[in-house]
Amino acid sequence: MRSMRLLVTGGAGFIGSNFIRFWFVGHPDDEIINVDRLTYAGDPANNADVAQTHDDRYSFVLADICDGAAISEIVAENRPDVIVNFAAESHNSRGVLDPGAFMRTNALGTQTLLEVARKRRVPRFHHISTCEVYGDLALDSAEAFIEESPYRPRTPYNASKAASELIVRAYHETFGLPTTVTNCSNNYGPWQHPEKVIALFTTSALDDEPLPLYRQSANRREWLHVDDHCAAIEAVILRGHPGETYNVGSGDERSIEEIADAVLDALDKPRALKAYVDDRPGHDRRYLLDHSKITRALGWRPAIPFEQGIRETVTWYEDHREWWEPKKRAMREQIDEFAWVRPAAMAGAR
Ligand code: NAD
Question: 272 CA distance to ligand 1 centroid (A)?
C-alpha cells in the first residue's frame, strides 16, 4: 500500500496522541501533521516520544480549527490524504459552566475544517464522535444505541458533538465530501487528563485523597481502552465507506461504584476513600452502543479486557506523576467536583 499523509486535529490531547503513536506502529512510512491549539487539554509532552522517533514523518502545527485561513494554508501546504478530527472541548463538567466554548470548537470548528476539506478537495474526512449524542438510557433498559438511533443530547458537550455530526452529514449529502464518523463509548488509558473519571480516581487514590463519586453511583458507562478505539478508527479510515457512521463500543458496562472499586483494588487502597458528591446537572444515567455494524462490515472487535486495561492504566499513572501532577493542580483552581450545588463550581472558567 502506498504511504499516506494524515492531518490529525487535536493530536496533543488524550485520544489523538494515542492515535498518532498507534498509527506509526502499523504505518511507519506514513506522515502525520498534528494541528492543535493546545488548550489546557493539549500537551506537547503527549507527543514527545513520537516527535523524537519519527522526526522526519511527524510535524506539529499550533493552530485553531476555527481559524479557516490558517487551516486552509496548512491543508494547501501539506495536501493530506485524510483529515482525522479529534479536536474538541471534551469535558462535560466544563461544558456546564462554559457552553459557548463547546459550540465554538465542536460545531463551528468542525464546519471550518469541512469547508477547507471541500474547497481543497481532501479525499477523506474522518470525524471522531461519541455515544453521548444519543442521549441516555434507563438503567434497566434492554436497548442499545444503533447508528440510526435518534440524537437526544442532554448536555452542552453532547449537543455540540451532535451538532458537529449533523454538519459532517450535511457536507457529505450536499457537497459529496467523502466523510466517515465513529461514535465511541467512554475511553480510558494512558495520557488521559486527570479531570476524566478513571484518571481522576487513579490520581486521587495515589495521593490518598477522596475519590469524588456522583451520588447516582449506579450510573453506568461502557468502557473501551483507547488502543481499541484507535484500531477502530484505523479500520474505518482504511476500509470504511464514505457517508457511513460506525458505533465503537466494548459491551463492557461498569457502574461508577465499580470503577472506583477497581481503581482502589488495583492500587491496594481502602474503599473508605470513596466520597459521595452531588451530581453534575444533566448527568446521564447510562449509554450502551450496539457495535455489531463495525464488527460485521470491517472485522473490528475490542481486544483489551477491562481488567488488563485498568491494571496497565493505573501503573502508567503511578509511573508518570510528573505528567499529571501539574495538570491536577491547575484543575483544582478551575473545577470543583465537590461543589455542584454552588453556582461557582468552576472558578475562573474560561
Ligand atoms: P482531549 O480534551 O483530551 O483533547 C482535545 C484536544 O483538542 C486537545 O489537545 C486540545 O488542545 C485540542 N483542541 C481543543 N480545541 C481546539 C481548537 N479549537 N483547535 C485545535 N485544537 C483544539 O479530548 P479526548 O478525550 O482526546 O477526545 C478526543 C475526541 O474524541 C473528541 O472529539 C471527543 O469528543 C471524542 N471522544 C472522546 C471520548 C472519551 O472518552 N474521551 C469518547 C468518545 C469520543
Answer: 33
- 101 with 350: CB under 8 angstroms? yes
Supply the pLDDT for residue 338: 59
Cross-strand bridge partners of residue 350: none
Question: Residue 224 CA: which ligand 1 atom is closest?
Answer: 40
Entry pTM? 0.95
Distance from Cα 89 to the centre of ligand 1, integer Å: 6
C-beta of residue 122 within 8 angstroms of C-beta of residue 83? yes
What is the CATH code for 5-347? 3.40.50.720
What pLDDT, in 10s, does the model give residues 143-178? 999 999 999 999 999 999 999 999 999 999 999 999
Do 248 and 182 meet the contact criterion of CB atoms below 8 Å apart? yes
pLDDT computed for residue 273 by the predictor: 97
SS3 122: coil
All structural domains of the chain with their residue ranges: 5-347
